[in-house]
Amino acid sequence: IICPTRSYSETLCMCLVPFSKPRTRATHRIGPHSFNILSLLIGSILGDASVEKHGEGTRICFQQEHSNNAYLLWFHRLVADLGYCNIVTPKILTRLGKGGKVRQLSRFKTFTYASFNWIEEAFYVKKEGKEGKEGHRVKIVPTIVEEYLTPLALAVWIMDDGGAVSYGLKIATNNFTLIEVNLLCEIINRKFGLNVRPGSAGVANQYIIYIPSASLPVLKKIIGPHMHPSMYYKLNSQL
User: SUPFAM superfamilies attached here (predicted)?
Assistant: First the structure.
């Protein structure tokens, strides 16, 4: 039986490889992975998703506040239909945030794949700690982004980190360096014919990507078909 959301080759691979069995060792989840799932994941990693090592493999973690629950459930269905995570619907969790504020959120993770290790190695570097303290991992922008930044990946990234502003749209890239933000702007402009540029995030050494209103009609055509309706507002009334 061919699943309508998968190609014949993807379906055949899933018959041969136990992608969707929860207790399969990471070293047995060896791929191959379709370009579509990789672009989906990398678009999300540019946004809110995180990548973590787990045993001998790597898994991708997704989390959204309750206000974005409809989007997270839609995204979970995309990943689950491709066989990359548990099909059980993520539950709403309650957590205590800063200042004692109660937060409601939903989250899920992909299965663990040894063949995802290269993604973790590409997107994270280890920073040395100061005065003998343990170092920490920092997310960076690898050069592979250009290959995998498809309209779908761009849509996911904007749904995660985009926001409507006066006369345009911004993508929050606060944790990336100015060099990395410039690189992302160059890739977006080159691949999609937009006119985006770096901007200040209002905090020292933090930056955003600014997409002016003149580029929004083009952006709408590129990412609109890939967006969840709950996120249309981020295109500043362009949908």
Answer: Homing endonucleases
CB atoms within 10 A of CB 191: 15
Q: If you ran DSSP here, which 8-state letter would residue 131 be given?
A: T
Residue 106's Cβ-count burial label (10 Å; 0-12, 13-18, 19+) is buried
Q: Which CATH code fits 145-231?
A: 3.10.28.10
Q: pLDDT value at position 22?
A: 59
Task: Mark 226-237 as b/e (b = at least 16 C-beta within 10 Å).
Answer: bbbebbeebbbe
Q: What is the DSSP letter of 2?
A: -
Question: How large is the angle between the packed helices 151-161 and 216-223, nearest 10 degrees?
Answer: 110
How much is the pTM? 0.84
The answer for 193, left when phi > 0, alpha when psi is -120 to 50, beta otherwise, is left
Residues 188, 157: Cα–Cα separation, whole Å:
12
Closest to 119 measured CA to CA, from 24, 207, 54, 28 = 54
| Of 34-38, 92-96, 176-180, 215-219, the least confident | 92-96
pLDDT digits (tens, 9 = 90+) for 33-72: 899 999 999 999 999 999 999 999 999 999 999 899 999 9
Calculate the CA 115 to chain-centre distance: 18
**How is the chain split into domains, by residue range?**
20-139, 145-231
Quick: pLDDT tens for 106-141.
Answer: 999 999 999 999 999 999 998 876 665 667 899 999
Quick one: CATH architecture of 20-139? Answer: Roll (3.10)
